[in-house]
Amino acid sequence: MTSTLTRPGFAAGSLVHSRGRDWVVLPDSADDFLVLRPLGGGDTDNAGVFPHLENVAAATFPPPTPEDAGNASGAALLRTALQVGFRASAGPFRSLASLAVEPRPYQLVPLLMAMRQDPVRLLIGDDVGIGKTVEAGLIAAELLAAGDAGRLAVLCAPSLAAQWAQELSDKFGIEATLVLPGTVTRLERDLLLGESLFDRHRHVIVSLDFIKSTRRRDDFVRSCPELVIVDEVHTCVAQDGAAGAGKGRHQRYELLRQLAADPTRHLILATATPHSGKEEGFRNLIGLLHPALAEADLSTTAGREELARYFVQRRRAHIRRYLDTDTPFPRDRRSSEVNYRLSPPHRQLLDDVLDYAREQVRDAADGSVRQRVRWWSALALLRALASSPRAAAATLRTRAINAAAATTAEADELGRTAVLDLTDDETTESADATPGADVETAPADSHAGRLRDLAARADALAGDPDAKLAAVTKVVKKLLADGYDPIVFCRFIDTAEYVRDHLDNALKRGITVDAVTGALTPNERVDRIAALGDVGGRRVLVATDCLSEGVNLQSLFQAVVHYDLAWNPTRHEQREGRVDRFGQVSSEVRAVTLYGANNIVDPIVLEVLLRKHEQIRKTLGVSVPVPERAESVLEAVLDKVLHADLAPEQLTLADLGVPGVDQLTLDWQSTADKERPENTKYAQVGIKPAEVARELAAVRAALGSVGDVAAFTREALDALGARPVDTADGFTAHTGGLPVGLRDALTPGHREPLPFHRDLPIPRHEARLDRTDPQVAAVARYVLDTALDPTTPAALRPARRCGVMRTGAVDRRTTLLLLRHRFHLTLPGRQGEKRIVAEDATTVAFTGTAAKPSWLDDDAVAALLSATPAGNVDPGGARDFITTAIDAAEALAPELAARADDLAEQLRDAHLRVRESAGQRARRQIQVAAQRPVDVLGVYVFLPTA
């Protein structure tokens, strides 16, 4: 392809010099305005220049000079430094070079699936802790970089919005605006007449609960970006008539249904629980991807294969070792139970509360609606009392959430929201509020008087010895002594603050205790967790379930204590998933469940739900959906508790005689049999490992492998005086003696000496040996910049652009050339063709002369890059060899250009391959052409030893 001149002398892809540095001219330039990217930089570094106002001169890339010769071992250093610095590579994955995260090989599977769709419609149902945010972010970054989307919206719970913003910014370079109740007034103040928030802001992160209302929804649907990610999408899908199918959930579903109705919109859905056990809900969910899926027969091979085009679901067993890469999930989750017994005064209060609750639910004098309101209030009271005296007192003094219900259905909906843990229903934003038990309206009512008396007794218990507090204190001390930092999960804000206050006094100095609850805004929660990470010593976090979903805590904590039982096993799994996930430093995580042996409710919940779930998880190694009948069975059991004439010590499942319990066990086992890892249908059906391996190899060849980066970083730091010392998975380096320019470029606050690790997870303030790590990137930039600047003192330049080495790796004189290419890419985009200038690097080598070169194959070239010196070379002779090699490189310019054309054709084939389902549109429009001349960055001569 012939470059189009954007201004006389300045062609797209050519080099210019301005503002003291060299730039690449980009295709978006015009005669009077140049869009420039710094050589080796990314799109975020672009600048606009008016050539009639600033000095802009054509630049040529100079060849190396013999005066700057060093050892030929610098070839590998310079090659890797160049690759690490690339932010706009020419391969089919446009975004990978510019990311600040290195995807795991298994995370490329959803990306490859997406590249074969137009539009992208994908449900990512991977297990908790595998990295769905990264997988969705990879797809979004690729669609934006390739021009298939121009705007992005992420829909999520408000508690996750700040985390999404940070992930998109830090890892993908996507700056998104938060559209939340607390920000919308300020944002709307700056709008023009008739302008929408979603027209003004290119990328947005929107609270689902804020945008679901009819007034907000219509504006959003009208101006919605063409690319939408929905996080925790299971909270958006309900089925008619199902227990807990609230209004808010239907509003969310209606929003997604309208968004999905646009056949051109990219839609990425993410959830660790795509199938909650409710078939109708799952059908509604996959119907958002394609209407036909809602009715597909998934019992047939054809039906499963059709769904597999849109749905990927992996368990840890599928990807713990995938291709040639191990992913270091915790090796084991060690679970245990610890029981306690209520003190006599606490037990007496529980007995009296139970008597009061039974009287309330049996009183049918004022109609079924009020009776149903009291039923839920009684459960709320029992649950709060089992949690803590402080929560019980608050509940006894608080009006029930469903006190004003007009129908039994409304009473049930509000009651379930306040009392049960409906993880597949409303969000957890207000789930930790005190539920309330006062259902009467007259302050002088006899019921109100009894509630006040019970509340006073609960207050008094807070000052007496609390067996539950004693139990958690013992558990937390043991975990701390064993080297674990625990999170203690409570059901209610009052309980969390009660436990926080106690542990803060009970634990020895040097241990930091803090609490995070729904009383804090999402941003305040993030700040408080970050502050815990900055303190020295051990730490304990007391939290409610506002942190049980979506928040990553694995870098700070390694254990979970369930102070209060969740009345849904999925909630327990979500709590433990905050620490048992990718990135956890500890090879073993712990989970401890506290329960009251004589508090009536805990033993029943344990037996009906939690122990069965844990038993299946241990057997299969994965959690399975809770059967649909679980909620109704639990309600039936609790109804028996409230209506039975049995003493509290007789309240066992056998005594209660609820027939649905046995059927629930059978349903659960049937679900477990279907969910066995070997039977999972959607693990990696659409994309074969060999396809991922091929693309992964191409990415590593273009951007540098982990081994290349590790060897480069150690050698460069050693040459600069950092005195690397090998460790089990890397090395440490003393950064204090590094050149000032490099030392200042390292991330502030890092450990000293600075540890570099090959394997994940990486402790805070340390570094990983991959191209995305900021410390490695700083080293690469320094090596490249000093190699290109001959004025830098020789001692401060680890790599040179030319060199000579005598080595046993060759049996005749061999010349190696390090080449930098610039390619013009034309890609099909939603708004028409997108023209891009990208960069790549290759190494070629030959024996013989420029007139008749004999080119080495790729394996032989790779061997040269790891060759070691075996003898000295006379300085005068070295100069002559370098001069001859530089002249040869110049004479070979036509040959190098032809090889670049071949590489361009290979790159085009790669772009077509990953878009193989895109049809003739992609085949016709994808073009790749090499810019001439090729930049010869380095020239190196290898001589035989004899």
Q: Would you give an account of this structure?
A:
- This is Helicase-related protein.
- GO terms for molecular function: helicase activity.
- Pfam families: DEAD, Helicase_C.
- It comes from Pilimelia columellifera subsp. columellifera.
- The protein is α/β, with parallel strands linked by helices.
- Among the domains are: 60 residues, SH3 type barrels (Roll); 213 residues, 3-Layer(aba) Sandwich (Rossmann fold), CATH 3.40.50.10810; 117 residues, no CATH class.
- The protein is built from 33 helices and 33 strands.
- The longest helix has 22 residues.
- It is elongated and about 105 Å long.
- The chain starts with a strand and ends with a strand.
- 49% of the residues are buried.
Structure in a nutshell:
This protein is an alpha/beta fold.
Secondary-structure map:
Blueprint (H helix, E strand, L loop, with lengths): L4 E3 L2 E2 L3 E4 L2 E5 L8 E5 L8 E3 L7 E2 L11 E2 L2 H12 L22 H8 L5 E4 L7 H15 L5 E5 L1 H15 L4 E3 L4 H6 L7 H4 L2 E5 H4 L2 H10 L3 E5 L15 H14 L5 E5 L8 H9 L13 H8 L2 E2 L3 H4 L1 E2 L2 E2 L5 E9 L3 H19 L5 H20 L1 H9 L10 H12 L26 H16 L5 H15 L4 E4 L3 H14 L4 E6 L5 H13 L3 E6 L15 E4 L6 H9 L10 E9 L4 H20 L9 H14 L9 H4 L3 H15 L14 H15 L2 H14 L5 E3 L2 E4 L6 H6 L8 E4 L9 E2 L5 H14 L14 E5 L7 E16 L2 E17 L4 E3 L2 H8 L9 H17 L1 H22 L5 H6 L1 E4 L4 E9 L3
Parallel strand pairs: 8-28, 9-14, 9-15, 10-12, 10-13, 11-12, 13-14, 18-23, 19-21, 19-22, 20-21, 22-23, 26-27, 28-33
Antiparallel strand pairs: 1-2, 3-4, 3-7, 4-5, 5-6, 16-17, 24-25, 25-26, 29-30, 29-32, 29-33, 30-31
Helix pairs in contact: 1-27, 1-29, 2-3, 3-4, 13-14, 13-17, 14-15, 14-16, 15-17, 15-19, 22-23, 22-25, 27-29
Pfam families: DEAD, Helicase_C
GO molecular function: helicase activity
Protein name: Helicase-related protein
